[in-house]
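User: Structure with NAP, C-alpha cells only please.
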Amino acid sequence: MTVSGKTRVCAVIGDPVKHSLSPCIHNAAFQHLKLDYVYVAFEVARGDLEKAVQGIKSLGIYGVNVTMPHKIAIMKHLDELDETAETVGAVNTILNKKGKLIGYNTDGEGALRALEAENQNPAGKKVVILGAGGASRSVSHSLAPLVRELMILNQAVDFEKAEKLAKELTTRFGSKIMYGKLSEDNLKRELENADLFVNATPVGMHPNENETPVDRGLLRRDLAIFDLVYHPCETRLLKEAKAVGAPTIEGLSMLVRQGAASFEIWTGKKPPVDVMIEAARERLKQLREAK
Ligand code: NAP
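Assistant:
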C-alpha cells in the first residue's frame, strides 16, 4: 500500500478505540480492492467531540465510523442525517461530501445481513431481544417492520429504556412490539414460543466469558441464537446453542457487515466481506494472544 497526497483517509472515533477491529477490517478491504484509501483510529474524549468534528472537516477526512460514547452526541454536529440515523437516534457512519457531513446508521443493516448470511429470515417470526441500549435500538428498528412479534426485555434497573423503545416502535410499526422486565420467569415464558433470540447486552463479553444471558436449559434446536457480543467470537451462549443444534449468528458477522455497509457508502464498491471477516478474526486472535 502506498499512501500519497491523494489517499482518502477514513477513521473511527470513539473512546476507547485502541482495540477497535475497524482499522483492520477496512484496511484489508481497501487493500484487497486496491483502493487508494487508508483507515486509522482516533481516540476522542467526550469533551472533545465538537473539535473532532471540526477536524474531520478541516482535515478533509473522507469517511468516519463513530463508536461509543459518541453515537448519539455526534448527531447535533452533523449537517444532514439519513432517515435510518434519524429514526434510530444514533449515527455510526459519516460521509464527508465536499465538506458536508452526512450521518448514517448501518448497525441495523449489519444485523439483517448477518441473519441473511446464516439463512435466518426474521419475517413473520417471534423475536426476543435482551437489552434496550444502543445496539438493541438499531437492531430492533431493523427487525420491527419484518417480525410477527418483538419482545424487548431489559433488566430492572433502567426499565424505562425498554418502555421508550417499545413505544417508539409501536408508533411506527403497530401493536406487535412488546416489552417487559428481565426475570427468569419472563425469559422462560417468552422464549417458549420464540423463533429467534438476540443478546444485545454485554453479558458474556470478554473478560466475563463464563457468563451467559440464557440458561442452557432454555435453548432448543428451533430457537435461533444471535449474540451481538463479538469478543469472543464464540460466546458461551453460542457454544451452548450449537450444542443443542440451534442455528447461531455471531456478533462478529454483524460487526463486519455494518462496516461493509459503511464501506459501500464511502466507496460505492461491493465490499469483500469474506476478506473483512478473516481480518477481524485474525485481529481478535492477536488481541487474545497479546494478553
Ligand atoms: P449499551 O448501550 O450500554 O446497552 C447495554 C444494554 O444491556 C442495556 O439495556 C443494559 O441495561 C443491558 N445490560 C447490561 N448489563 C446487563 C446484565 N448484566 N444483564 C442484563 N442486561 C444487561 O451497550 P450497546 O452498545 O447496546 O452494546 C451491547 C452489546 O452489543 C455489547 O457487548 C457490544 O459490544 C455489542 N455490540 C455489538 C455490535 C456488533 O456489530 N456486533 C454492535 C454494537 C454493540 P441497562 O439499560 O439497565 O443499562
